[in-house]
Amino acid sequence: MNLNFAQILPSLPYILQGILVTLQFTLLSALGGFIWGTILSLFKISNIKPLYAFGVAYTSVFRGTPLILQLALVYFATPQLTGYTISALEAGVLTFTLNSAAYISETIRAGILAVDRGQWEAATSLGVSYKLTMWDVILPQAFKNILPALVNESIALLKDSALVSTIGAADLLRRASIVAAEKFIYFEPLLFVGAIYYAMVMVLTYAAQSLERRMRLSD
Fold first, then answer.
1. Residues 6+ apart with CB under 8 A from 111
2. Global confidence as pTM
3. Theoretical Cys-Cys bridge with 102: which of 37, 62, 76, 198, CB 3.0 to 4.6 Å?
4. Cβ atoms 37, 105 nearer than 8 A
């Protein structure tokens, strides 16, 4: 093999700028997915049938179709249907938010149902409203239990963010592909970007483990 990483040295600043784009997609999508996923999880444990049906149907659709298809629909169909020219950033964040919420909602729903029924009964006997019980008692315990699963979803979201390169977003993978095409070498820039993704995943994993330890000590 004739490998020469020196060829991509002048392009490293350009590639590294993609880290900010990748993190922007990931953080915005993770936040949006968490908020919307929490709402969906409440729909799916609700006694109100239309909300329950919507939550179940929503999860079925977004879990049952490919993410890249959802991204293509949002990016290419939005201008056709609405007349609004959506940017790659908007399309990526919207798609990943909607998609990750479907998975997160199932995780949160399971966490809520895993909380001891006695917690509900104790709050009810004290006259605490459903809203306050859910917000102050149930959700904090559920989130503590499902933190590892939420971290796994965030890691998956970070890696899946590379799909935005297919719609022209200048993320890490897109920039590496541009450098590869310009210099007619592919292994070096792609391997370099792969190492960056791996490093970001390891940082996220370590941060999550530290948070878990702190939460266990606070019990």
1. 141, 142, 143, 145, 146, 149
2. 0.84
3. 62
4. yes
Residue whose C-alpha is closest to residue 13's, from 179, 139, 134, 130: 179
The three-state secondary structure class of 219 is coil
Report the distance separating Cα 187 and Cα 179, nearest Å.
11
DSSP secondary structure code for residue 161 in this structure: G
| pLDDT tens digits for range 110-164 | 888 887 777 777 777 777 777 778 777 778 888 877 887 888 888 889 998 899 9
Rg of the chain, C-alpha, whole Å = 21
CA diameter of the chain: 73
Q: Specify the pLDDT at position 144.
A: 79
Residue-level pLDDT at 49: 93
Helix ranges (DSSP H) in the chain = 12-16, 18-44, 49-64, 67-72, 78-82, 88-114, 117-125, 130-132, 139-160, 172-183, 187-217
Tokens representing 177? 């592909």
Using an 8 Å Cβ cutoff, are 8 and 186 in contact? no
Residue range 183-208: mean pLDDT, rounded = 90
Structure tokens given for 95: 């798609």
Residue 67 has phi, psi (to 5 degrees) of: -60, -40
Any residues with CB less than 8 A from the CB of 198 and at least 6 apart, and which? none
Measuring CA to CA, which residue among 112, 63, 95 is closest to residue 169? 95
Residue 189 · residue 180 · CB < 8 Å: yes
Question: Whole-angstrom Cα distance, residue 216 to residue 218?
Answer: 5
